[in-house]
Amino acid sequence: MASENVFETTDTNFESDVLKSDVPVLVDFWASWCAPCRAIAPIIDELAEDNKGKAKIVKVNTDENPNIPSQYGVRGIPTLIVFKGGEVFDQVTGVVPKENLQSMLDKAAA
């Protein structure tokens, strides 16, 4: 993984890593074969660096962890969901500008 500030989570650890987090969490649902997922990866790394201590950035490999994406209705990847207080706060699918994702995190942190 490109950034030490981006964490991988699994179907097993999702609740403790994301739902029980005391800060907003941006979850990147991705797969290794997905070109748009690879395109947005550097943006995800930058967000992790920029938001250190304010938010968590977590990745879920949808091929290896099918239960959580299914539970949250992820149909296309990359899907990025911001969780706050264990609930879905905001979400977007596809490659979007860094500013859009930062705005989602800022609103969740407010």
Overview of this structure, please?
This protein is of the alpha/beta class and 110 residues long. The protein is 35% helix and 25% strand. A five-stranded mixed β-sheet has the order 1-3-2-4-5. The radius of gyration is 12 Å and the shape is globular.
Using DSSP, what is the number of strands? 5
- What structural class do the secondary elements suggest? alpha/beta
What radius of gyration results from the CA coordinates? Answer: 12 Å
**Total helical segments:** 4
Show unreliable segments.
Answer: none
The separation of the N and C termini measures: 29 Å
What value does the average pLDDT take? 95
Give the proportion of residues in helices. Answer: 25-40%
- Mind summarizing the main beta sheet? 5 strands, mixed
Overall geometry: globular
- The strand order across the widest sheet is 1-3-2-4-5
Order of helices and strands: EHEHEHEEH
User: How much strand?
Assistant: 25-35%
How would you summarize this macromolecular structure in one to three sentences?
This protein has helices at residues 14-19, 35-50, 67-71, 98-109; strands spanning 6-8, 25-30, 56-61, 79-84, 87-93.
Task: Give me some keywords for this one.
alpha/beta; five-stranded mixed sheet
Task: Itemize the secondary structure elements and their pairings.
Elements (H helix, E strand, L loop, with lengths): L5 E3 L5 H6 L5 E6 L4 H16 L5 E6 L5 H5 L7 E6 L2 E7 L4 H12 L1
Parallel strand pairs: 1-3, 2-3
Antiparallel strand pairs: 2-4, 4-5
